[in-house]
């Protein structure tokens, strides 16, 4: 990796000043942020947060964006009460910290969330998106959960699941060209493995000049040079969900 002392560059970017239009709910043992479209919908998307947790305003902004596109959006606390990472934390402790929050061990929580969406929200078709840690979780779910229709993994850490590529559902992978934690050779290898092993639709797309977290951790007004790519990636994400959910 580019920098072992800072193994995740998720602190690059901007913290949005955003309150959210949804509400916090308790779903069995999990807290979650939920936002619903005014016209109602039977389509839903599970939003999986990055290392900064389910309360990060940026992630709620993305959940609300899904709602404006006709989806029920839910962002559960997949750390289940454990503290989210803080920018002030010592990066030397990150690997120990993340070992207690395994993106490949969220199946119990996902089952609870899917049950809630179906029984309490009337959702019939459900997809999933995730950022960084959550992007890796999306890849995990696309490999094994039969109840999801499609997924979008945004700069998911490839090395977490680098040997598994037999996806069950259409999956869109978003990467930044200048992402220090996910080198382009890893992305190329992912594409090769998917081509060899994957029997469902997938797409891997690299956005020029973009760093880790660009879709939800950069503000267009502060980063005007990145605005076209931020908007393009968000549009690509929505189009993928619209196509398969």
UniProtKB/TrEMBL annotation:
GO molecular function: hydrolase activity
Localization (cell): Cytoplasm, Cytosol
Pfam family for this entry, one: DLH
Residues annotated as domain Dienelactone hydrolase: 30-244
Main location: cytoplasm
Keywords: Cytoplasm
GO CC term (a single one): cytosol
InterPro entries the UniProt entry points to: AB_hydrolase_fold (IPR029058), CMBL (IPR042946), Dienelactn_hydro (IPR002925)
Entry's family note: Belongs to the dienelactone hydrolase family.
Protein name (record): Carboxymethylenebutenolidase homolog
Naturally occurring in which organism (per UniProt): Cnemophilus loriae
Lineage of source species: Eukaryota, Metazoa, Chordata, Craniata, Vertebrata
Gene name linked to the record: Cmbl_1
